[in-house]
């Protein structure tokens, strides 16, 4: 009986783990597909905005103003794009602007190149639907894709040229998940022809067609995986469990849609061996507990039987009554718990989808609003256009915060850590905020200063962190301080201090304001989600700051200023080097 019970428990646990993993992995794959779709949609909006800008519509393809416009768009989109470029009506390259992380070896275009014979240029010219996504192919040792938009005269529909962007596939898709380690969950991405445009585990699969001999030999022509991939390339999501000789795997898949059309396809693959690594130990411990429980229960039953012989009739009615009450309570509790889980899942899915759907239209609104503000000649409209642009930026920040919260909640937040000179970063950000404060021209202007307090040259302090996430945290803290200081004017101080704890050294960044301070009623919940005070806000900023700092092995804190009015918000990160 005991062996049967243990085997039944083990079987049930394994089945539940399988089902839970598939459910979680389907949710993660769908979220990754939506994130990639949203980011590519934003890039398409950038290219569309350039194609319809007054500069390019006036056939200006090479002036300094055009170069500045293209560079501004590239810097706003992000570092994942290698190049944004312009071709004239004869398919000659006129402008090439490279991303901030692009090296000379990554760039394969230069001004004056004739691209008339490249297939993706021909396809762009003959394609009736914009944008055009090329298949993946290798250039100068880098595997890349091209996204292009024809520049058509708004009145005559005459072709004026082409605007496009190139993306290195492996760095781009690695921002959404693991592409390297085949022992952990990893991603495989295909183009529309079935070519693999990532390189799982560096196994030489990059650029190979899935149904070609090389890949088919690699996957041992597994029928389950082949059928699953065929469904994917036809635009279908789904999942399968299979083993082609390298261990059992669970694969879930989703098409990547841009403007409603499948342009790329992603599979998330999880080796099931990792799911059971901790299960065997847990089952052994539970078996020991079960045996002990069985022995104790048996002894208790013997004693209870002796007692029941004397009091059988009275206790039988009482046991029946209590059993029924317990059954009814457990049933109600299970129903309430199941409903709570369903509501929680629906809420997370709705927030994630809503944030992605909001993000897509915001970028073209911002881009076109900026163009209208720059090119507007009617001064009476300036104040209205500025309101539109400012509120669109606020809406973009809100959607980015919501997306970051969903990444944190679903444990999908990924960091790109690198050595960072904290002093240089703080100095740059303070100067930028000082410039913005002056532009506001407020009658009670806030004074912002930076006060490093370290031994030696503060520029020599190096921490290991994600630069963009550090900027996000410091911006949040500065914006909070400005919010509490703008009404009456005042002083905001940013400090950098070096701390020593045992053998470790830490860099502490503090933002000090002299506003009204922290309300004691919200002090304990200050860094929790939706915690806010009488000022307007979503209550997400400090929650994001806490999670972003802790994800980088740092600590964040807040307290009222002991020297008088105001508050101090700060964080510290371990110093990895002192040059």
Q: Bin the helical content.
A: 40-55%
Distance between the termini: 68 Å
Tally the beta strands. 17
Q: CATH superfamily of the largest domain, called what?
A: Histidine kinase-like ATPase, C-terminal domain
Overall structural domain count: 4
Annotation field: number of helices: 12
CATH architecture of the largest domain: 2-Layer Sandwich
Key words describing this protein structure:
single chain; 579 residues; alpha+beta; Beta-Lactamase; seven-stranded mixed β-sheet; six-stranded antiparallel β-sheet; 47% helix; 22% strand
How would you describe this protein?
There is one protein chain. The protein is an alpha+beta fold and 579 residues long. It has four domains: 2-15 and 177-276, Beta-Lactamase; 52-168, Beta-Lactamase; 285-409; 418-578, Heat Shock Protein 90, CATH 3.30.565.10. It has twelve helices and 17 strands. The protein has helices at 2-51, 54-57, 64-77, 119-126, 169-174, 213-218, 223-233, 279-375, 382-409, 422-440, 467-483, 541-550, and strands spanning 81-88, 93-98, 132-133, 137-139, 142-152, 159-168, 186-190, 238-242, 249-258, 261-271, 418-421, 446-453, 461-465, 490-501, 504-513, 555-560, 567-578. The strands form three sheets. Strands 11, 12, 13, 14, 15, 16 and 17 form a seven-stranded mixed β-sheet that branches. Strand 1 (81-88) and strand 2 (93-98) form a beta hairpin. The longest helix is centred in the middle third of the chain and has 97 residues, at 279-375. It is globular. The mean pLDDT is 82.
């Amino acid at each position: 009986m005991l062996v049967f019970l243990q085997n039944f428990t083990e079987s049930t646990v394994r089945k539940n783990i399988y089902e839970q993993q598939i459910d979680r992995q389907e949710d993660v794959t769908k979220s990754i597909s939506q994130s990639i779709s949203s980011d590519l949609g934003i890039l398409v909006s950038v290219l569309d905005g350039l194609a319809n800008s007054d500069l390019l519509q006036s056939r200006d393809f090479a002036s300094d103003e055009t170069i500045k416009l293209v560079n501004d768009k590239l810097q706003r989109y992000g570092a994942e794009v290698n190049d944004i470029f312009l071709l004239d009506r004869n398919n000659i390259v006129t402008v090439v602007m490279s991303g901030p992380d692009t090296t000379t070896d990554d760039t394969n275009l230069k001004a004056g190149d004739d691209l008339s014979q490249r297939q993706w240029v021909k396809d762009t010219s003959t394609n009736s639907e914009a944008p055009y996504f090329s298949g993946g192919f290798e250039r100068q040792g880098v595997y890349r894709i091209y996204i292009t938009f024809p520049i058509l005269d708004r009145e005559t529909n005459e072709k004026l040229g082409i605007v496009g962007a190139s993306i290195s596939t492996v760095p781009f898709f690695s921002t959404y998940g693991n592409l390297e380690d085949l022992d952990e969950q990893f991603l495989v991405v295909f183009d529309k022809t079935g070519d693999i445009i990532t390189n799982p585990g560096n196994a030489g699969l990059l650029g190979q067609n899935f149904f070609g001999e090389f890949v088919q030999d690699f996957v041992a022509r597994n029928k389950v995986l082949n059928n699953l991939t065929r469904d994917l390339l036809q635009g279908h999501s789904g999942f399968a469990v299979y083993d082609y000789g390298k261990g059992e795997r669970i694969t879930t898949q989703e098409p990547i849609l841009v403007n409603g059309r499948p342009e790329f396809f992603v599979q998330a693959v999880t080796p099931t061996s990792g799911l059971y690594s901790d299960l065997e130990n847990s089952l052994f411990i539970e078996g020991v507990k079960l045996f002990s429980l069985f022995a104790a229960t048996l002894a208790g039953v013997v004693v209870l039987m002796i007692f029941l012989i004397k009091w059988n009739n009275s206790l039988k009615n009482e046991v029946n009554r209590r059993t029924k009450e317990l059954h009814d309570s457990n049933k109600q509790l299970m129903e309430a718990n199941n409903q709570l889980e369903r509501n929680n899942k629906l809420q997370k899915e709705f927030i994630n989808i809503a944030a992605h759907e909001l993000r897509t239209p915001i970028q073209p609104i911002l881009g076109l609003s900026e163009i209208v503000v720059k090119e507007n000649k009617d001064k009476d409209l300036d104040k209205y256009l500025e309101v539109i642009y400012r509120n669109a930026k606020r809406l973009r920040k809100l959607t980015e915060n919501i997306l970051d919260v969903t990444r944190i909640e679903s444990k999908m937040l990924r960091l790109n850590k690198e050595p960072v000179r904290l002093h240089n970063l703080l100095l740059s950000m303070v100067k930028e905020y000082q410039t913005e404060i002056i532009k506001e021209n407020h009658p009670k202007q806030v004074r912002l200063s930076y006060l490093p307090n370290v031994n030696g040259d503060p520029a020599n302090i190096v921490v290991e962190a994600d630069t963009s996430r550090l900027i996000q945290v410091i911006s949040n803290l500065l914006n909070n301080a400005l919010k509490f200081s703008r009404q009456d004017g005042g002083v905001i101080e940013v400090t950098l201090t070096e701390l020593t704890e045992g053998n470790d050294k830490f860099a502490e960044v503090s933002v000090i304001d002299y506003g009204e301070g922290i309300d004691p009623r919200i002090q304990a919940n200050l860094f929790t989600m939706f915690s806010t005070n009488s000022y307007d806000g979503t209550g997400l900023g400090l929650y994001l700051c806490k999670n972003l700092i802790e994800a980088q092995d740092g600590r964040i804190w807040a307290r009222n200023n002991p020297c008088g009015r105001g508050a101090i918000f700060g964080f510290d990160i371990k110093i990895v080097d002192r040059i």
